[in-house]
Write a structure and sequence with these properties.
Pfam families: Sigma70_r2, Sigma70_r4_2. The chain is mainly alpha-helical. It contains 8 helices and no strands.
């Protein structure tokens, strides 16, 4: 059974049982299409929309809606997609800056250095790549990086140390 948007919003704001499920079932397809039109990747679009609904529910942002529920959710999806691209660009810039700051001969052109580091990075094991990325590109603490990788702190340190050693050796 589907309810008009105003009734659905009121039920949601009153935290009536089943209201969120109704909102999710009704607005997910529209939200997914919106995200897909922006990111052009089905898996990413699903993840972003899921994040929007999770945030919407956990932070009870529906309590502050004074406009249409549809417009509010579509704005959230739009902003989430834009934030994703901004974060992606930020990570790319950080990676490029990191590549340039790795011990490089002063005479080497930046393009050559970047290519050399990318080749060295590609030779690292998957765990070493992930450790370097989490700590040096995403600026996570060792503890946070270990948690996101699903390894203990000491294992992360080992992967990171070995990865950085290989990167340094490839640069000389």
């Amino acid at each position: 059974m589907s309810y008009p948007a105003e009734i659905l919003l009121k039920a949601l704001q009153e935290e009536q049982p089943g209201a969120f499920e109704q909102v999710y079932n009704h607005y997910y397809p529209l939200s997914f299409r919106k995200a897909l039109s922006i990111v052009d990747d089905e898996c990413l679009a699903k993840d972003l929309v899921q994040d929007v609904f999770l945030y919407f529910w956990e932070n009870k942002t529906y309590r502050q809606i004074r406009t249409s529920l549809s417009s509010y959710l579509q704005t959230m999806v739009h902003n989430k997609c834009n934030n994703h691209f901004r974060e992606e660009q930020k990570q790319r810039r950080k990676y490029e800056e990191y590549v340039i700051t790795v011990t490089t001969p002063e005479y080497a052109p930046a393009e050559e250095v970047i290519e050399k580091v990318q080749q060295a990075y590609a030779r690292l094991s998957g765990h070493q790549q992930l450790a370097v990325q989490k700590v040096h590109c995403e600026d996570l603490s060792y503890n946070d990086a270990a948690i996101t990788m699903g390894v203990n702190y000491e294992t992360l340190k080992t992967h990171l140390a070995r990865g950085m050693k290989k990167l340094r050796n490839c640069m000389h």
